[in-house]
Amino acid sequence: MPEARLYFDWNAGAPMKAAARARLIERIGHPGNGSSVHAEGRAARGAIEEARRSVARLCAAEAKGVTFCSGGTEAANTVLTPDWTLFGKPYRLDRLLVSAVEHPAVARGGRFPADCVEVIPVDGDGIVDLGSLDRRLAELATTGARALVSVMTANNETGVVEPVAEVARIARAHGALVHSDAVQAAGKLPLDIEALGLDVLTLSSHKIGGGQGAGAVVRGRTGFAFSPLVTGGGQESWARAGTENVAAVAAFGAAAEVAIADLGKTADVAARRDRIAEMIRDIAPDVVMFGEGTLRLPNTLSFAMPGVSAETAVIAFDLAGVALSSGSACSSGKVTASPVLTAMGVDPVLVRCGLRVSIGPETSDAEVVAFGLRARNVFAAMKKQHGTAAA
Ligand code: PLP
Description:
Elements: E1 6-7, H1 18-28, H2 39-58, E2 66-69, H3 72-79, E3 83-86, E4 89-92, E5 95-99, H4 104-107, E6 117-120, H5 130-143, E7 147-150, H6 164-173, E8 177-181, H7 193-196, E9 200-204, E10 215-219, E11 224-226, H8 246-262, H9 266-283, E12 288-290, E13 300-304, H10 310-319, E14 322-323, E15 325-326, H11 339-343, H12 348-351, E16 354-358, H13 365-386
Helix pairs in contact: 1-8, 2-8, 5-6, 9-13
The structure holds pyridoxal-5'-phosphate.
Residues 71-73, 103, 105, 152, 156, 181, 183-184, 204, 206, 215 line the site of pyridoxal-5'-phosphate.
């Protein structure tokens, strides 16, 4: 009998929570459009509003601040716009400042013209340079330019947690708006939009086990509103046109409830992640771990084996029944050099060796042990092939 596969790529897509799957299946069989006034429509509306309350709870926001959309990328593109309103009056932004380690959904700048997007550097752990941010915002303020700052809550590749509350404090001091891409942090860290001081944050359902096809923009209580990305009908209070994907949204809500409960398992997840790190160190003492000395998501491990190319390793692990990913976002299906590790100043040769293991609250001790055994075989075989340091 073939060995069970080990899914250690939760940051790419978390397995669907049983409650989310049940809600999806339940809703998908119903015909109601959330905008219709009849009983079927009202039932769909009820499911959407229930999900809105759950997603709001995930980040301690008000339900009315939640706008559903298709995913984290659409959510980011929605808020990265120069066109905002403040208490209903037009409020135009001139500049977008993003950290050097943002996901492409943010790094591409959304609806800002390319020459209005500026990158704030990070340190060797991938933490945004607050001094640079402060200085640049001060300069912009003297010219009267208005800025939106976008710094992710936690990084998808390294798990490194950004000092978002500090970012927001600095941004506010200079009159800038502040967004945080909380796609990876949600469900792994407690989130509180007001405590963080954010104007807006963005979420994705499939990263918390809600399945693909839903995401959310969540606004704080600051009176700012973005101009919609998708225009047409008045769904989502005119913030995102188009018939809501009721089943996906309902599943997102169910996953949010489970994710809130699962926050209690954070220490266990971190212990398993650390056990994996220990095993890898034992197999390959020259392994380089990234972001280890700083606050990280409990589930994420980013590392490089000198001399072992990530591309080869991902394939070798896959053949050994383990799903993990290279350090880079490989949205095209190709393994490319990680811009995150590059921005952290990692040697380009080592960047090509970057791997990411990401687990979740349902990852078992037995799976961790099985991973260790398979990793030993994979690295031993690669050592034979390449004459690398893996022991
Ligand atoms: N932001 C971060 C940090 C991510 O990790 C991802 C997905 O990998 C996204 C945004 C995009 O989310 P989605 O896949 O829902 O479009």
